[in-house]
Amino acid sequence: MSRFVNLELDGHSEDHSHEQKGLLKDESYYLAEARSAFENGNFESALRFYSKVLEFNPENAAAWTHQVRMLIRIGRGS
Fold first, then answer.
1. Half-sphere exposure of residue 38: CA atoms within 13 angstroms, side-chain side
2. Burial class, 35, CB count within 10 angstroms (exposed 0-12 / middle 13-18 / buried 19+)
3. How far apart are CA 61 and CA 64, in angstroms?
4. Using 50, 70 and 90 to split pLDDT, how confident is the model at 76?
5. How far is CA 9 from CA 2, 3, 14, 15, in A?
6. Half-sphere exposure (CA, 13 Å, Cβ side) for 32?
7. 30: phi then psi, degrees, rounded to nearest 5
């Protein structure tokens, strides 16, 4: 832990430990982002997020299936 964690400047605390914990981008993070993009009709974004899921776990069958669905939705399935 840094000795500057509790440093206050201009009345604002500089403790970013909560922010850093929220930045963990792993398989489940990208899967949630992909689902959200799909539900919002952002099929190209969903495709990118499902590809990211597969970088973490190439055996994720759901990501493969949904990736194909996204290709079909955006007209690249044929």
1. 21
2. middle
3. 5
4. confident
5. 16, 15, 7, 11
6. 6
7. -70, -30
Q: What are phi and psi of 20, to 5 degrees?
A: -65, -35
- Phi/psi region, residue 75 (left: phi>0; alpha: psi -120 to 50; beta: rest), is left
pLDDT in tens, 6-16: 656 665 555 55
Dig out the tokens for 28 from the structure.
């489940």
**Tokens read off for 6:** 């509790």
Task: State yes or no: pLDDT of 4 exceeds 90.
Answer: no
Residues listed for the chain: 78
- For the chain, give the secondary structure using H, E and C: CCCCCCCEECCEECCCHHHHHCCCCCHHHHHHHHHHHHHCCCHHHHHHHHHHHHHHCCCCHHHHHHHHHHHHHCCCCC
